[in-house]
Amino acid sequence: MRAPLCLLLLVAHAVDTLALNRRKKQVGTGLGGNCTGCIICSEENGCSTCQQRLFLFIHREGIRQYGKCLHDCPPGYFGIRGQEVNRCKKCGATCESCFSQDFCIRCKRQFYLYKGKCLPTCPPGTLAHQNTRECQERNPGQKKGRKDQRPRKDRKLDMRPRQPGLQP
Length: 168
What we know:
The chain is an alpha+beta fold.
């Protein structure tokens, strides 16, 4: 009685294993077995469709490309949400990190960040801050056209007490 029961359990296990392997071949194991968050995935190209809130990141190697579903786009890319697909898109050539195609957060080594743009040199009226690679205004507290209100050394101060009703 035990032999037929063991045989039946062995056959059931083999059928489950075959079905699991068959499903793995359909889903695929692109990107070293990483199809996490994918709706459609293949061994050759990885993910081609992601779950609703994830971004599709296409990594290119030579002529091959692999898709991967991510919560956030990697450095050098920014996320674009669409009706059908959310995609990771590459930042501009001078940007190391960006918020959108037109707004950089951090620039590549030879460039300075100024108002979301990466420039080879800082514009007039700004100074290059070497540590942050940003252009900073020369006098951030001083408004344009406003003269310095501090007394100059060559100007004498009138220290006489003022009388009420009289103006100097």
